[in-house]
Design goal:
By secondary structure, the protein is α+β, with helices and mostly antiparallel strands. It folds into 2 domains: 123 residues, Immunoglobulins (Immunoglobulin-like); 168 residues, Distorted Sandwich (Glucose Permease (Domain IIA)). Helix content is 17%, strand content 38%. The protein contains 4 helices and 20 strands. The strands form 4 sheets. Strands 12, 13, 14, 15, 16, 17, 18, 19 and 20 form a 9-stranded antiparallel sheet that branches. Strands 1-2-6-5 form a 4-stranded antiparallel sheet. A 4-stranded antiparallel sheet has the order 4-3-7-8, with no helix packed on it. The longest helix has 24 residues. The chain is globular and about 60 Å long. The termini are far apart. Bound molecules: zinc ion. Zinc ion (ZN) binds next to loops.
């Protein structure tokens, strides 16, 4: 028994020695070695639920040229922070995403072209959303043929705008409220229109009286500035990497497609155009195909770049 135990220790030492040599040669030696490039993976907010925006942050143990990731089937391109080997990416979890544990897959490419990979399991909790009944004009519930054509034309404009590619984030620091009024607790609400049509409210309503100046929540490029059937007069700003904010039901639009806007710059005036029950500002936040809670985004501390 003693001899066999001794043999075992010796073979264990040999295995350890082989692993050490492989490490020196820079060859992969199991999972621990593959993860060596990632020092810390974190996110905020800490508690993630369906409908949360999320800032992923990755600290590397050595410099990298590129950091990429995959999250809920969407690709992430990380941006390097000013100092250290910290990288971040702004992403989201759709309001209709079922809760569960999901893999955040990461890869970093070093200056020598060598890639390191890791996978982090991230828990998504269920969102807590209510149901409400609303009454709007009948044309918004059962649109006629001409209106259906208009809705289809609006969709073409939106699809083109959302496919717009800006490779780098244009936002800097936290997002700010577009109007000086408190938001309502309306994101994610399951809504019945005239007792018939059910839909999910994919944004937050601010009780802004008509004529309130509406400002950009962050730096970006205007990708939509026109009237739409449901949204009314709408401005959409692309903040880079398909992270967009949408401002709906405006009485007046003061920007045009292609304009670069800064955080706090005026986009127009709030109003009651499109499918509304009264004057308000609807703010939507969309990342790739995902709609997230604007109120959570407005409270999220973000790097200045
Ligand atoms: Zn709304």
């Amino acid at each position: 028994m003693i001899l066999r135990h001794h043999e075992y220790l010796r073979s264990l030492r040999r295995v350890r020695w082989a692993a050490f040599v492989l490490l020196l040669l820079g060859l992969p030696a199991g999972n621990a070695q593959q993860n060596a490039g990632f020092r810390l993976i974190s996110w905020s907010p800490l508690r993630l639920e369906s409908g949360s925006p999320v800032l992923f942050r990755v600290e590397l143990s050595r410099p990298a040229d590129e950091v990429h990731g995959t999250w809920l089937d969407y690709s992430l391109v990380f941006t390097k922070a000013h100092e250290g080997d910290t990288w971040y990416a702004l992403a989201g979890i759709d309001v209709e995403q079922a809760p569960g544990t999901f893999a955040l897959e990461l890869s970093a490419t070093g200056p020598n072209g060598r890639e390191v990979h890791t996978i982090k399991q991230v828990v998504v909790l269920p969102g807590r959303y209510k149901t409400t009944m609303l009454h709007v004009e009948e044309k918004y519930v059962e649109p006629d043929a001409a209106t259906l054509q208009r809705i289809a034309a609006d969709k073409v404009v939106k699809d083109a705008a959302f496919a717009h590619q800006i490779s780098q984030p244009l936002w800097a620091g936290s997002f700010r409220s577009p109007v000086p009024f408190s938001p309502t607790d309306s994101f994610g609400t399951r809504r019945m229109f005239n007792g018939k049509l059910a839909s999910i409210h994919r944004g937050t309503d601010f009780h802004a009286p008509s004529g309130t100046p509406v400002v950009a929540a962050n730096d970006g490029e205007v990708v939509i500035a026109q009237g739409m059937f449901y949204e009314g007069n709408m401005v959409v700003i692309d903040h880079g990497q398909q992270f967009t904010t949408m401002y709906m039901h405006l009485s007046k639009i003061e920007v045009k497609v292609g304009d670069r806007v800064s955080k706090g710059e005026r986009l127009g005036l709030s109003g009651a155009t499109g499918r509304v029950t009264g004057p308000h500002l609807h703010l939507g936040v969309r990342w790739q195909g995902v709609y997230v809670d604007p109120v959570v985004l407005l409270g999220l501390p973000l790097p200045k770049r």
